[in-house]
Amino acid sequence: MTKAGFAAVIGAPNAGKSTLTNRLVGAKVSIVTQKVQTTRFPVRGVAIEGDVQIVLVDTPGIFAPRRRLDRAMVRSAWGGAADADAVVHMVDAQAELAAAEPGAKSADRRSATDVATIVEGLKAAGSQVILALNKIDGMKRERLLALAKALFDSGAYSEVFMISAADGAGVDDLKHRLAELMPEGPWLYPADQTADLPARLLAAEITREKIYLRVHEELPYAAAVETTAFEERADGSLRIEQMVYVEREGQRAIVLGHKGQTLKWIGQKSREELAELLDRPVHLFLHVKVDDRWADKREFYGDVGLDFDV
Ligand SMILES: Nc1nc2c(ncn2[C@@H]2O[C@H](COP(=O)(O)OP(=O)(O)OP(=O)(O)O)[C@@H](O)[C@H]2O)c(=O)[nH]1
Ligand SMILES: [Mg+2]
Question: I need a labelling partner for 189 at 20 to 30 A (CA). Which of 24, 105, 199, 240 fits?
Answer without folding.
Answer: 240
